[in-house]
Amino acid sequence: MRVLAITAHPDDMEFMCAGTLLKCKQRGDEVFVCTVNNGNMGHLEIMPDELAEIRRAEAQRACDLAGFTYLYCDIGDLCSYYQSKEQKDILVDIIRQANPDLMIIPDPDDYMCDHVAASKLAFDAAFSATVPHYVTKYPAIDNITPIYYMSTAAGVNFHPTEYVDITDVYEKKLEMLHCHESQEVWLRDHDHVDYTRECRVLAEFYGLHCKATYAEAFRPCLVSHRLRSYRVLP
Ligand SMILES: [Zn+2]
Question: How far away, in angstroms, is 229 Cα from ligand 1 center?
Answer without folding.
Answer: 32
